[in-house]
């Protein structure tokens, strides 16, 4: 996963309170289905390469490769025979208009979202696709309401508070308090519009307290620049 150098992700969120394999499967299915064909596809924040391996086997693209900032995870990907480059989501080391598709699995909450999404638009060819998943507000509510101990509940609380502050001011809380965000479709649409990306499809993947736990968005680059 690709993290902004200005934030540190807490390890306690690794296993959500209500981890459901079927939810993970829905997220993965959203990311990989309907991508079409083309020359090159990039998995931004590819982690250990599990999804990247599936995309490579799926076919449809001449080149399928990943971006990862963690050196150990990059090494694991290389051992699996995957082509992965080191880099940050906010500064992808690739030429403009060089890719046909981008996938991004729950990476944006840990980054400077505006800069990272702007990079998707920059590296995509006109008409290129993005399949991305995000933590919705229900993800924070899940931790706050159902966390097994105080640290997990506090993680959910600070995620929600940080998201409110970010929506209001455009800035995160300082230090570890601002390490991750819940994403809203409204805020994301504003970013998409400013980057020349059009939201073609939204899928709500499970809800908690009436709010999306995960969001899946299919985007298309419709404007240049």
UniProtKB/TrEMBL annotation:
Q: Which CDD domains match?
A: AdoMet_MTases (cd02440)
Q: Which Gene3D superfamilies match?
A: Vaccinia Virus protein VP39
User: Residues in domain Methyltransferase type?
Assistant: 42-130
Q: Does the keyword Nucleotide-binding apply?
A: no
For whether the record's keyword set contains Methyltransferase, the answer is yes
Q: Which residues lie in Basic and acidic residues bias regions?
A: 15-25
Keywords for the protein's UniProt record, in alphabetical order:
Methyltransferase, Transferase
One GO BP:
methylation
Q: Where is this region: Disordered?
A: 1-25
Looking at the record's lineage, which domain of life comes first?
Bacteria
Question: What are the GO MF terms of this UniProt record?
Answer: S-adenosylmethionine-dependent methyltransferase activity
Q: What's the name of the protein?
A: Methyltransferase type 11
Q: Which organism is it from?
A: Isosphaera pallida (strain ATCC 43644 / DSM 9630 / IS1B)
**Source lineage:** Bacteria, Pseudomonadati, Planctomycetota, Planctomycetia, Isosphaerales
């Amino acid at each position: 996963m690709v993290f902004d150098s200005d934030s540190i992700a807490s390890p306690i969120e690794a296993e959500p309170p209500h981890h459901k394999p079927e939810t993970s499967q829905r997220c993965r299915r959203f990311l990989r289905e309907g991508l079409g064909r083309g020359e090159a596809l990039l998995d931004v924040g590819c982690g250990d390469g599990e999804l990247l391996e599936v995309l490579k086997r799926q076919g449809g693209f001449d080149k399928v490769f990943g971006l990862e900032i963690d050196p150990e995870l990059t090494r694991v990907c290389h051992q699996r025979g995957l082509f992965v480059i080191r880099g940050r989501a906010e500064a992808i080391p690739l030429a403009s208009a060089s890719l046909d598709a981008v996938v991004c699995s729950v990476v944006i909450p840990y980054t400077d979202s505006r800069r990272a999404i702007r990079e998707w638009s920059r590296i995509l060819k006109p008409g290129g696709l993005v399949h991305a998943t995000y933590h919705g507000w229900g993800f924070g509510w899940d931790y706050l309401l159902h966390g097994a101990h105080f640290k997990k509940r506090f993680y959910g609380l600070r995620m929600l508070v940080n998201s409110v502050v970010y929506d209001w001011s455009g800035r995160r809380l300082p230090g570890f308090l601002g390490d991750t965000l819940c994403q809203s479709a409204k805020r994301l649409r504003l970013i998409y519009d400013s980057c020349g990306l059009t939201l073609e499809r939204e899928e709500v993947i499970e809800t908690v307290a009436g709010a999306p736990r995960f969001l899946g968005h299919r985007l298309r680059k419709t404007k240049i620049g």
